[in-house]
Amino acid sequence: MSADLDKTTKPQSFARTVLTYAVCILVAVVIALIVRYFLIEPYRIPTGSMLPTIQLNDMVLANKLVYKTGHNPKYNDIVVFKDPDGEYPQLIKRVIATGGQTVNLVDGHVEVDGKKLVEPYTHGEPSNPLPGYPDITFPYKVPQGDIWVMGDNRTNSADSRAFGAVPISTVYGRAWWTYWPLGHFGALR
Predict the structure, then answer these.
(1) 64: closest CA among 38, 83, 31, 43?
(2) Which tens digits make up the pLDDT trace of 100-144?
(3) Of 49, 127, 157, 160, which is the active-site residue?
(4) Can 49 be counted among the known catalytic residues?
């Protein structure tokens, strides 16, 4: 009887244990890559253009799936998109207008289709045309398939006032959560 016990309680070989761990690690990596590529991706904020909503070098999570399922960016979404000038890997700004809408800057305020926007996230900073960008004139009609984006830090943001409307095809996702540093942890508004 003791011989049968020894056969059933024989320890697993070292090679089998290593193989088991390797398979578990591989599965975890594949799942992480799928989540990052299709669902949620972390981004580091390269500029202070979204102050005080998002701080320089904050790490945020962007929902990549939302715009891949037939939804387009809408007013007030905070989006991560390819930098049109190529200076940074990506930029993050707030959607102010979408395709077909007309943006105007009047007396330091933004108007969309003739209505003055209420923008508490700018903390009273004026929204004026940026000097040195004569190609962008107001009123500006956003082309279909594009969005007009602006940083919350209106006096220090190179945004659509500098590079024009952004094609939706260059939007990576909607930023929704700051996860680092822990003092800034929470939902974006």
Answers:
(1) 38
(2) 999 999 999 999 999 999 999 999 999 999 988 888 999 999 999
(3) 49
(4) yes
